[in-house]
Amino acid sequence: MFLTLTLLRKGIPGKQWIGKYRRPRQITWQMKRNTVKHLEREAENEYWISRPYMTPEQEYCHAAERRAQNWLNIKEAKFRSFPEHKHMTDHLSHLKITKTWSS
């Protein structure tokens, strides 16, 4: 019975594009071309990544001045947005403790 089912099977069971017994997808020339382009692009990227722009000696502390300047700019921006200092007289001025009854 199982032999008969396997020999007389005419189609793919279930969905034809997914699963264990799926229909294989035809490879077109566009697919081949895209794969070749992708591999060439990847090879070029690996070529450029394998050659460093700066030597380790040049790279050491090359951005220290820029980073210090950026930090100072951030600090100054923070202090600019900080409110002014207030004295105790500003807080207690509504009490008018120096004013006398008779003027």
Structure description:
This protein is an all-alpha fold and 103 residues long. It has helices spanning 2-7, 29-49, 56-59, 64-80, 88-92. The longest helix is centred in the middle third of the chain and has 21 residues, at 29-49. The model has no long low-confidence stretch (mean pLDDT 86).
Task: Describe the structure concisely for a colleague.
This protein has five helices and no strands.
Topology summary:
Elements: H1 2-7, H2 29-49, H3 56-59, H4 64-80, H5 88-92
What distinguishing features does this structure have?
single chain; 103 residues; mainly alpha; 5 helices; 51% helix
Q: What structural class should be given to the helix and strand makeup?
A: mainly alpha
As a whole number of angstroms, the C-alpha radius of gyration is 39 Å
Largest sheet: none
Q: Tell me which oligomeric state these chains represent.
A: single chain
Fraction in helix: 40-55%
- The tally of beta strands, per DSSP, is 0
H/I helix tally? 5
Uncertain stretches of 5 or more adjacent residues: none
- The end-to-end span amounts to 120 Å
From the spread of the alpha carbons, the general shape counts as elongated
| Binned strand content | under 5%
Mean pLDDT: 86
Order of helices and strands: HHHHH
